[in-house]
Every structure is written in C-alpha cells, then in structure tokens.
Hints:
Radius of gyration: 15 Å
Number of strands: 0
Structural class: mainly alpha
CATH class: Mainly Alpha
CATH architecture: Up-down Bundle
Order of helices and strands: HHHH
Number of helices: 4
CATH superfamily: 23S rRNA-intervening sequence
Low-confidence stretches: none
Distance between the termini: 31 Å
Shape: elongated
Oligomer: single chain
Helix content: over 70%
Number of domains: 1
Amino acid sequence: xxxxxxxxxxxxxxxxxxxxxxxxxxxxxxxxxxxxxxxxxxxxxxxxxxxxxxxxxxxxxxxxxxxxxxxxxxxxxxxxxxxxxxxxxxxxxxxxxxxxxxxxxxxxxxxxxxxxx
Length: 117
C-alpha cells in the first residue's frame, strides 16, 4: 500500500513494522501481553490518522491526532520497557523507533497548525 501523504505513509509503515515485530516477539519470548501492547500501540496511530482524514471539523481532526499522539507516547513507553528489561535489543527496534519519532513529530506539528488556524 502506498500513501502520498507523509503522515499516512509513515504511520502505515509504523503499523506494519510494529505488527511484524510483535508477532516475532511473541513467538520467541512467549510474552504475549507485552507483544499485544506493542501491536496495539503501533497500529492505533495509523487507524486514528486514517479516521481523521474524514473528520467533521478541524477540532475533530485535532482531537483524533491527539489520541494518535497518546498512542505514540504509549508505544515509546513499551519500547523503553522492552530495552530496559533486556527482552529486546535497541538495534532490533531501530526502524520502529525512527518511524515512531517521525510520526510523533508530524502529529505535534499538525496539531499546532490546526490550533493556530
């Protein structure tokens, strides 16, 4: 799937990478709860961003972007837990972290733009 919009494209890539990581992580570690959290938090921003494209108003879009941003911050927490606990290496999470940073930055900037207009 190819999206023209940078936010949609990066959030889609984040979801795919997070999903694939969580499947592999659950197989090798048997840590199903954490694996499911990673899956949910990595896919939720993209779904919320997709939903925001048909927002009823700018305020509605800003609200949906805010929820997506909260999901990004929760994903950041779980990635930190994985590394801190030794369940995952930073290197194997690098692509997810890079995409997460990009999606987070775009969401923050988009919310500021929506607030100022």
